[in-house]
Amino acid sequence: MKSHQTTIIDIAHELKISKSTVSRALIGHPNVKHTTRMAVLELAEKMDYQRNMHAISLITRKSSTLGVIVPEFTSSYFPEIIIGAQTAATAAGYNIIISQSNESYETEVANTRVMLANQVDGIMISMTKETRNYDHFKVFQRKGIPIVFFNRVCDEMKVPKVVVDDYDGAFKVVEHLLSIGKNKIAHLAGPDSLSMSVKRLSGYLDALKKHQVAINEQWIIPYDLSIPKVSIYVNHLLNLENPPNAIFAINDPTAIEAIQVIKKAGLRIPQDIAVAGFSNDYISSLIEPSLTTMSQPVQKIGIKAIELLIDQIKRDVKDWKAVTHVLKTELIIRNSTLIS
Predict the structure, then answer these.
(1) What is the pTM of this model?
(2) Positive or negative, the Cα torsion across 94, 154, 325, 188?
């Protein structure tokens, strides 16, 4: 037997009012009496009525839905940001649609089309490592849909952004490694398509220059964030005629993989070679040795991105402000750099 889903016609019939009155009551139209609206809402709940959000969006021109696109879910970083975003969105009366691009530009483009099809009121995005063309993002601007970038941002577009101080964080990690006597510091860097990779590399280089430590180009290896490749690069560093005595990795997953490779090689961490990461991933405190890293206020990133998005939604397009909100990082020193 086919089940029947309650419609506004059923509610209208039960209350002996027009279906247009029911429709207006459900979206909070000011011309509906308070008593009528409460009667409609109470009956709708009793009859388990599910609102047709697409139909409502056609009437109000708002879906009360925000889109979130992230590049991956392999670490705890982006899920933590989404927790913050969900909290802020819910408090403001919005739902969110979440998709991940699996570090694929083509999937990212497809994800933006899904968001447009679902008529999101705004979207927050962290790009893939492959993204170098931004036309699929610019569609939102042309349609008057606010967009906020976070973590991995598009510098070409004048829109709000939420980032951490990548340069300062990297600078402080390298200074810490120098302070424990490690003056041969390698850097497993990210792709130069990501501004955060460029800023962390700049912080690394400037810290070495400040302390008059020679820069060895052999110890700087940019890579595409594909974790299986880390073992190749770390083994290469370890087998150099002049190997480094410390590794600063672009992120924690890279640093954690580097630790495994170094341990397999029979070297001691941090006595023979120290390791530091960036992001304070959940597992970084659980591995052996625990990982020194730069902690980022990840949930705050999600909260701030949603706040900026909603602020844009409330403004006329001509009043949109392309602000960049920079959050501070914090050095967390653990056993991978603690020399007793």
Answers:
(1) 0.80
(2) positive
